[in-house]
Amino acid sequence: MEDDSAPFYLAVCLVEPHAPWVMGDASRYPANQLKLPPNMADTQETRENFSDYLAEITYMDSQVGDILQALEQSGKADNTLVLFTSEQGSKFPGNKWTNWDTGLHTALIARWPGISPVNKRTDALVQYCDFLPTVVELAGGDPEQFEFDGKSFLDVIKGNTHKHRDYVFGIHNNVPEGPQYPIRTVFDGQYRYIRNLCPDRIYIEKHVMGGSDFWHSWVKRSYNQKDVYELVERFTRRPPEQLYHTAEDPYEMNNLADNPKYAEIKNKLSDRLDKWMAQENDPGAPIDTMQAFKAAKNQNHIY
């Protein structure tokens, strides 16, 4: 930041709030006073872990503050675009390692004094692949000269438009986090369509189910608590298709896929997902295997 010879680009990758949640002051979030989201079972273990999770987010907030303070001290804050985003949803069941909105929808905040609108929200849909062409355009390059998967959303940052993409997409294959369980999704800003390509299989994710006391508490309670049983079943057994009015049902608890009223919407999104998979040369389930994972890793296609 202090080098005045050229513009700077700085990417800061914070590790919080990644499990184990050990940073921050959990006493600021008393476990018994928390309001849990509807996609999480209300057990004491869940409450205590959620308290630790919120504390670590608060700790991360202080780290962001340190970075912004350093930017201010450099004298370049008024001439610097700051983008804050995150990786995926939390480790709690039904979030990370899924294609539900709570697994894929992440924060994206822009601050650019005098250029970005202040305290405004936008409905523009952006994907991570849009970041690189945006940075290229910011640096004075022409993203159209390159074969990027994404496209610059600089006009969104400047507040010139509230439209960027018609659809955003997501995938999950669960390898090597557990047995093969390929999932694909498409979202249009209102409705999310999810396709589970192996719905006859039980979903198993080793980090959630093998090493977390809150998951064990869910299973223990599920034998005599219907609402907890339904959450366990929701996580482990998925239908072939799921459709949610995410704009009105943000935790996607009400599957509309079998409701005739929404058949047209489901068919439209299903067709759009087919076209995207074809465009990406995605054959679906055959690519989501341990053998395919190892082959791609050996070819440095993944890390």
From TrEMBL:
Uppermost EC category: hydrolase
Statement: the UniProt record of this protein carries the keyword Cytoplasm: no
The Sulfatase N-terminal domain, residue ranges: 5-140
Keywords: Hydrolase
InterPro entries assigned to the protein according to its UniProt record, in alphabetical order: Alkaline_phosphatase_core_sf, GAG_Ulvan_Degrading_Sulfatases, Sulfatase_N
Gene3D superfamilies in UniProt: Alkaline Phosphatase, subunit A (3.40.720.10)
GO-annotated molecular function: choline-sulfatase activity
A Pfam family that the UniProt record links to this protein: Sulfatase
EC numbers on record: 3.1.6.6
Name assigned to this protein: Choline-sulfatase
Species whose genome carries this gene: Sedimentisphaera cyanobacteriorum
Organism placement in taxonomy: Bacteria, Pseudomonadati, Planctomycetota, Phycisphaerae, Sedimentisphaerales
This protein's encoding gene: betC_2
